[in-house]
Amino acid sequence: QKPQIMQMSIAQWEAAFPDDDACAAYLVEHRWPNGVVCPRCGNPKVYKLAFRAWNWQCDQCAIGKYRFSHIAGTIFENTNKPLTVWFEVIYYMMTSKKGVSALQIQRQMGLGSYRTAWSMCHRIRAGMADEAFQHLAGFVEIDEAYIGGKDKWKHKNKKGEGPRGGKGKMVVVGAAERDGNVVARVINSVDSRTLGEFMREVLSNRV
User: Fold this and answer.
1) Which of 71, 142, 146, 194 could be bridged to 76 by S-S, CB 3.0 to 4.6 A?
2) Dist CA 128 CA 125 (whole Å)
């Protein structure tokens, strides 16, 4: 049976990111999977500041001691909105099939001004064009398509039993990153083993 690839509901999203600490932990884990490094010089020998959460210090930077946080050098830097708000705006922008405007975001999120909503949307769209942000976001959509004419219109020697839902047709499975690359394969079956192998191949190439 085909594995179900479900889009998270807003309730599931909010459960996954209930507060700023959960959002910060996600950012740190995905931004620095091998350990925190200085965003300026790449020095891995940084130490965490005990008196300030999610902040580190690098003593190797040429410009002197450099203190930085998990949002340094990201689209979230120098804003007064909590990460939970940013993450929720990202959710709406990533899941809206027809796109979402800054005005819609302002109304949906109850933001104080249109300019704030526009600035957030602008930053997120700019981030989506960056490969590092695409990897950080980690969104991949996977679906299959059946290509070819209906079986009843084919010559007798061309007819045949095809996969579920696509009798006699060629099956193409594709994986697409949001505003990113697309990978497609012709497959012989839509069973869980075949689709699972494709998913593992695609996702392993993104690590």
Assistant:
1) 71
2) 5
Q: What is the mean pLDDT of residues 17-44?
A: 93
Rounded Cα distance, 195 and 173, in Å: 8
Say how far apart CA 148 and CA 169 lie, in whole Å: 5
The first and second tokens of residue 55, run together, are 């902040």
Identity of residue 60: Q
Instruction: Tell me the per-residue pLDDT of 111-122, one tens digit each, with 9 for 90 and over.
Output: 989 999 999 998
On the CB side of 31, CA atoms within 13 Å amount to 20
Whether residue 173 contacts residue 187, with contact meaning beta carbons closer than 8 Å, is answered with: yes
Give the β-pairing of 170-177 and 140-147.
antiparallel
Q: Residue 176 forms beta bridges with which residues?
A: 141, 182
- Tell me the β-bridge partners of 60: none
| Its pTM surpasses 0.85 | no
